[in-house]
From TrEMBL:
Residues 5-246 form the ABC transporter domain. NCBIfam families: 3a0107s01c2. This is Phosphate ABC transporter, ATP-binding protein. InterPro entries: AAA+_ATPase, ABC_transporter-like_ATP-bd, ABC_transporter-like_CS, P-loop_NTPase, PstB-like. It is a peripheral membrane protein. It is found in: Cell inner membrane. Keywords: ATP-binding, Cell membrane, Hydrolase, Membrane, Nucleotide-binding, Phosphate transport, Translocase, Transport. It comes from Lactobacillus equicursoris 66c. Gene3D superfamilies: P-loop containing nucleotide triphosphate hydrolases.
Amino acid sequence: MEDKITIENLNLYYSDFHALHDVNMHIQKNEITAFIGPSGCGKSTLLRCLNRMNDLVEGCRIEGSVKLDGTDIYGGDLDVTVLRQRVGMVFQRPNPFPMSVYDNVAYGPKIHGVTDKQELDEIVETSLKQAAIWDDLKDRLNKSALGLSGGQQQRLCIARALAVKPEVLLMDEPTSALDPISTSKIEELALQLKKDYTIVIVTHNMQQAVRISDKTGFFLLGDLVEFGETDQLFSMPKDERTERYITGRFG
Ligand SMILES: Nc1ncnc2c1ncn2[C@@H]1O[C@H](COP(=O)(O)OP(=O)(O)OP(=O)(O)O)[C@@H](O)[C@H]1O
């Protein structure tokens, strides 16, 4: 199997606070990798390292390397705008822009220089289809995205992320604000998308990790305690701390 992202000896500090301790991980292409662990253990921090979102945090310092297809994203050869196009992100709360459905999806491609109307139309249609929301929205393309339901907004945000043709999709608790039906739609979607993309998802929902992920990493207080095949990690965890967490005997 091919590494899409290789994390080596990653340490992250928020000023004096050492938030991630020597993390090593191989994230494979066309797989879903889940990060689980109690609140504050560093899951989102690590996720944000994968497209350099922590660069925006004052006092944040990173040691070690994160390689995308073998190139260190902190090494200086990769432009951050290009990196964020290649590694897209979907957030916990759906955050559509206050504009039409169409403009939400066309926004990224326009910024990246696509001006041809027909090409934009095609990108919007393809992205909404990939996000399994074309049928819901094809007659509402010019309506405000803010009028959609939460689940529709989140799928629109996934379409928006896909519109710039990323290779990796980072999802930070993408279903935590959604009802069970919308959640299952997003889970089905993630399983569809992994054929074409590499997906990394932070989730508090262990059942979700079991349902959709190939690999799972369990974090505790900034340490990656255990990382491996999801089935194995949940059925025969190697570390006692993982076992206590997944059986709800933690704390
Ligand atoms: N911008 C920041 N400045 C300082 N400390 C931060 C910052 N962001 C996160 N932290 C700290 O780093 C640690 C890890 O936070 P992080 O958000 O990555 O955890 P998490 O596992 O994703 O938690 P949750 O499940 O609650 O979202 C926490 O102790 C948090 O308080």
